[in-house]
Amino acid sequence: MHPRLAGPAVSPRWLMAMLLPVALLALPLPAAATPSANDLPVEDIQTFAEVFERIKRAYVEEVDDSTLLRNAMRGMLSELDPHSAYLDREEFQSLRESTEGEFGGVGIEVGTQDGQLTVITPIDDTPASRAGLQSRDVILRIDDTPTERLSLQEAVTLMRGDPGTEVSLTIMRQGDDAPRTFTMAREVIRTESVRSELLEPGYGYLRVSQFQTRTGDQVRNAIADMEREGTLNGLVLDLRNNPGGVLQAAVAVADVFLDSGLIVYTEGRLPDTEMRFSASTETAAPDVPLVVLINGGSASAAEIVAGALQDQRRGVVMGTESFGKGSVQQIMPLGNGEGLKLTTALYFTPGGRSIQAQGIEPDVQVVRGRLEVAEGSELMVREADLEGHLRSRDEPRTRGELGERLREDYQLGEALNLLKALNVLSQRDR
């Protein structure tokens, strides 16, 4: 039986607007959460219809029904959390491209913090990283468009575009007295998510910049390449400024180092959002001493990997506290070619820790440089200005160059020192 809506007779347009929320309420819910007819917010539905009609009749410019309804849907999702969004066709395609690892843009991962569009991290070897954009930079304008009223997806769409075209970002950086502007030429961002090299004979470096569908296989291949040059006595897994990505890719990377046990589990309202992921016995590097580097730009899937390896006591987590994004989003295609990005669950480490708004605390805290922050200051020292891409193994690197790099990257140098110490202790125990 349909709920009976009390009140005056309504026009067909009002009726259409009133039936939209009713249709949404008719979506299947868990049995325990199914509302009764008495729970239907009739008054709110009537208010929605009234607002809709008044905008149509009185707004200074004519607005079509489709625009109003899409704005209403965007509003419903944007008020839930910073990561849920309604995606039009262009935004839906853009999200698919970034997941698959190729798109046109400047190469930054953005989010919202305190209602402001904020850089989470620049992607390695992109216009953004080369220009010097840093984690926690607040983006005030994209070209001539203020960002304060833009949705996250609208901002991403403005920053992306054809390779060779320019975009200007006006940003405010902590500690600056005035905004600064970065003008960059867009490029085709082909994000190879894994890079590797030997820091010294026997000591490998594995950089994972984000988690894409092929990242797990790329990590396995990178380890195999390093092992062909000799036995690995230690490995640095660098997850700094890694904004996350595909959940299954995070599970695959953790599985490279674990041969048993739980990696991560999720909990949500619907049965299909409650999942558990465990390690397989096929492990590429089950015994190699491991140091995992994280910082304030390490988020989501990066925190899954760091949390799993920490809880399983598989490696030492070093650096600074991670970002604290412990929610899972599902991408839901709609029949009209558009889509929803909806937060459906929270994820937990093997030990039962929720990372949402908490982050991963490192076992060994090491800031990027020997900088000290004044007591009481809110400024966090972050790994915000990455060096750029690692050189090919075919490109020679002198010992002097490598030594200079380790001096510049204090966290990486300390990770290498810790691996050497772990090896010394291991040999004493034999």
UniProtKB/TrEMBL annotation:
Alphabetical GO biological process terms: proteolysis; signal transduction
An annotated GO cellular component: outer membrane-bounded periplasmic space
Molecular function terms from GO: endopeptidase activity; serine-type peptidase activity
InterPro entries reported in the protein's UniProt record: ClpP/crotonase-like_dom_sf (IPR029045), CtpA/B_N (IPR055210), PDZ (IPR001478), PDZ_sf (IPR036034), Peptidase_S41A (IPR004447), Tail-specific_protease (IPR005151)
Database matches in SUPFAM superfamilies: ClpP/crotonase, PDZ domain-like
Statement: the UniProt record of this protein carries the keyword Signal: yes
Keywords: Hydrolase, Protease, Serine protease, Signal
Domain of life: Bacteria
Gene3D superfamilies to which the protein is assigned, alphabetical: 2-enoyl-CoA Hydratase, Chain A, domain 1, 2.30.42.10, 3.30.750.44
Protein name, entry field: Peptidase S41
Organism: Halomonas heilongjiangensis
